[in-house]
Design goal:
Layout (H helix, E strand, L loop, with lengths): L3 E2 L10 E2 L10 H13 L4 H5 L10 H11 L8 H12 L1 H10 L6 H29 L3 H13 L2
Antiparallel strand pairs: 1-2
């Protein structure tokens, strides 16, 4: 098993861990599925909006498209008019690739839950890092609060 050396602590003792640095969790396939579903079936937008928010996306392009899609109610635009508007914002090839990846909006909620779960995992990791910093600084109550707040919201 590989051991990773962490920076020395204030007491001068180096620590090791079995956990390597990792990229924060994301689900780009889920994000693509949400956007593709909403393009394939604009009526699934309210169902998806009840599960996730713009901040849940890791990809800025998907976040931008999602923000535009959620501003519209299903009856505001025809799918063709919506695609034309998106073509102007992010480009025709990008929109067409997204519409080709998902045949319908039937699984929109499933994709949205995947995106939400990745976001929640990122929040837990961030709170755990904050709690660790607070614990090293000697504030048990602040460390506990950092974890309690995020776990209450998951």
């Amino acid at each position: 098993m590989t051991r990773y050396v962490l920076p020395a602590m204030p007491d001068g003792v180096a620590r090791t861990t079995d956990v390597p640095w990792q990229e924060p969790p994301s689900d780009l396939d889920g994000e693509e599925g949400v956007i593709g579903s909403m393009l394939a079936d604009p009526a699934c937008g309210p169902r998806v909006a009840g599960i996730i928010h713009c901040k849940d996306f890791t990809d800025s392009g998907y976040r931008r498209i999602y923000r535009l899609l959620t501003r519209l109610s299903p009856g505001d635009r025809s799918p063709e008019a919506l695609r034309a508007e998106l073509h102007a914002v992010v480009g025709e090839a990008y929109v067409e690739a997204l519409t080709d990846c998902v045949p319908s909006g039937a699984n929109a909620a499933w994709y949205a839950r995947r995106v939400r779960d990745a976001y929640r995992r990122r929040r837990i990791i961030s709170a755990a890092a904050e709690a660790t910093r607070e614990a090293y600084d000697g504030s048990v109550s602040a460390a506990r609060a950092a974890l309690t707040d995020v776990l209450a919201g998951t």
